[in-house]
Amino acid sequence: MPGISPDIISHRLSVNPAVRPVRQKRRAYDPERYEAMKAEVDRLSSIRFIREVDYPTWLANVVMVRKPRKGWRMCVDYTNLNRACPKDSFPLPRIDQLVDATAGHALLSFMDAYSGYNQIFMHPEDQAHTSFITDRGLYCYKVMPFGLKNAGATYQRLVNHLFAPLIGNTMEVYVDDMLVKSRTADQHIPNLSAMFTILKQYKMRLNPTKCAFGVASGKFLGFMISQRGIEANPEKIQAILDMTIPKTVKDIQSLTGRVAALTRFISKATDRCAPFFKALKGTKRNITWTVECATAFSELKEYMGRAPLLSTPEHGDILVVYLSVSASAVSSVLIRSKDNAEHPVHYVSKALQDAEVRYPDIEKLAFSLVVSARRLRPYFQAHTIHVLTNQPLRQVLQKPETSGRLVKWAIELGEFDIHYKPRPAMRGQAVADFLSEFTEPQASAATQLTTEPNPSPSQDQTLTKNTLDLTQPLWTLFVDGSSNAQGCGAGLVLVSPDKVALEYALRFKFHASNNEAEYEALLAGLRLAKEMDAKQIQIFSDSQLVVYQVNQDFTAKDASMTAYLQHARHLLATFHAHSIKQVPRSENSHADALARLASALEQGMGRHIHIEFLAQPSTQAPLICTIDHSPTWMDPIFQFLQNQTLPANLAEARRVRHRSARYLVINGSLYKRGFNLPYLRCLTPEEGHYVLREIHEGICGNHSGARSLAHKAIRQGYFWPSLHTDAQAFTQKSDKSQRFASIPQLPAEPLTAMVSPWPFAQWGLDLIGPMPEGKGQVKYAVVAVDYFTKWAEAEALATITAARIESFVWQNIVCRFGIPNSIVTDNGRQFDNAKFKQFCSNLKIRLCFASPAHPQSNGQVEAINKIIKKTLKTKLDKAKGCWPELLPEVLWSYRTTFSTSTGETPFSLSFGTEAVAPVEIGQPTYRTSTYDATANDEQLALNLDFIDELRDQSSMRNVAYKQRIAKYYDSRVKPRAFKMGDWVMRKVSLATKNPNEGTLGPTWEGPY
């Protein structure tokens, strides 16, 4: 078999060199295994899959495994070798996505490569690592064997490369399982032809006994694929149907393992297996097979006997999600509607762990949706999702009072195009298990109240204004209000159709009579029910006045009661149906409204207590001011959160939906959920300008910088998208911020390196002093340094006149090293004068001056000055006046010191050899002890012949060193660009500083 060319791919092991090789000891086998091993080695040798090897560093044993039908399969135990190899992270395709992409095609062809792994060659350097031992000798693989770590990743990398034009269109490949698909029968032959062309080109061989061409259905990656959809593997189903009643822990584990392989097809799989999990708890050997287990086992077998056919969604399909919650698990089903029928796409189920079990029911429902979105992420990303629920799931995820985890879930779900719809009448067996969203046994008092016949008016005076449809979701509201000397308040309990109780306590910031408090409680409850999207509501109150007035049995004569009654009727009209009843005081007392309302309910309901403050009576009309409203950045988000309205542009709509997950509306204002702060009030840029001005310049302002100003605005509780940009613009325009701004320390321009083209062509010149007066009244020193060799010259001076500088340059530079090309100095009068300029002009020396107040532009000589001063300090100790006598020693020390930038000493770059140091006289070295005059002259002459090469190498090192310095320097550059005509601020100098202001004076003056 020719195999795949190594130019295309070969398998590398990448063995960790730090791991010690392992040579396994030879194992003994029975005669039958020896014979099978001998035959297999002969076969592999004849087809050149293996070869003999000498002195291998890694050695493994052969493992003979009996085949299911007849014969033996030879494997190699590469356990030790695999541990020494790093994992190849090349991704394998997702099986669910491959199966979905395959279902729904008219014709399919299934192919399997012949000894697929063996068609890839091992890299020559790694062949010896695959060595194995037999009774006949040592062998290693020339091709990639089974059992090697990363072999699957290598094969997947190969097929992805070979079939790249076909994968995803007419072909799907998972390692060595290949499939060609066609939507219509007449397309299948051309699709197969394209695949065989690639096989022939790369010399890949197929196993004819494992291939099937042009079939309508077949097994692919453990699923039955056909044009109708996806079916569970019949063998896996039969394995469950054939099981007897489990008697041991291992039997139950086997059962749950077989179910886990088919969870995609099993509705509420976790709930069905819950009795089995309970039987496994608390024991390691014996189990207790309860009646509950027997019933679950029987129902599971019955369900698997009619396992559903799963559908595959097409592009543009709207998918539907049904959710269900039980005491110990959350479940969902993804549905595709076609031909007025519902077809399941995927079932999801998850057991609740630890704190998840204690979530309130409504949070469990939200968690069920989050679990579905995580497991079915490809579907949620590619399709619009409709969540069918009668629970206020959307409102809960967007409520400002929600818990932190609900906020996190809302942000996570905001990525997807999810719409929440009420549940219609369900059709089909696919959703039979999802008729109820909450499956706990329930028998609450609220339900009894809605189903019992109404008592006679003489008992509780009830009147139904709209006939309640008991087949539809019915909400129940208990309200009560109270007024006393300590204050006024109200309590209410709203119970959902699934017995989730929401409890509110309200504290009034205004005085209200007892009847007004009763009405306020009723109005608050109606507003809450409307916010929860309730359609039908039944109300219970112990106030005879409120109940009779609403039911039109009493007439409201007082102006206040009339206003409250009109407001209540207006809110009640927004419901499809409603009723209001009076209940006895014993069930709804005035002493503690919220406590007694809650005690009137069934025990076991989730408690969600919220306290609100009511600032003004509900009948008081809000103050409305007419303003000119222009579009703002908040409008699309606000419209979506309030009315589910999205922009027409699909990309913009998706962006708004994703962003809105971090926003919420409270009392008509938009707020943003901060990452580590409370809700941030969203502002327009105009409103933000006022906030910035107040924080920056107000009573508590500190004229901080842009970033600090923006951070403080967020800490105060404000947000708008351009906050940081606006803060920068604001601080840049602030006059006081500019005048008192700190002097910038970061460089404004990139570093410009100065490089001399040849030795002694460019010198830097500078002065040191005044220093302690020495002999001859000298107290200054003039210093010069060559930019190429770093050679330094210095001379002590009593006065620093132009004549003395001219004499130094003539004697120490020109007469010793020749006329330089240029000299760089500062702007001192000793250098910047007519006499010195004329001297340089006569010798054709270009005189360059450093930038004023910027000594870095003559940095080479400044660096030498620091070295000279530091060395003098160290040597002189207390006799500071002796520095002129020690100056030559300091220069000698510097000239013979290695330079990092050039890689040589200044002496060697100047003269081609290293100087003989005084230490070599006291303690002779090899060159001084073996000195020969004739040979020494020859070597010195030879060094002079090599000096140009030495200087070239030094120049390259110097350039590289300066580039490294410039790279670090430039990383800190903060450019400051000025244009002609710009207004600028100038740094305050000693001459312009107001002495009366002291340290409180401005740093800058202007503008100019």
From TrEMBL:
One of its GO terms (biological process) is DNA integration. GO terms for molecular function: nucleic acid binding; RNA-DNA hybrid ribonuclease activity. PROSITE patterns: INTEGRASE (PS50994), RNASE_H_1 (PS50879), RT_POL (PS50878). Residues 46-225 form the Reverse transcriptase domain. Residues 471-600 form the RNase H type-1 domain. Residues 755-914 form the Integrase catalytic domain. Pfam families: RT_RNaseH_2, rve, RVT_1, RVT_3. PANTHER family: RIBONUCLEASE H. This is Uncharacterized protein. It comes from Prunus dulcis.
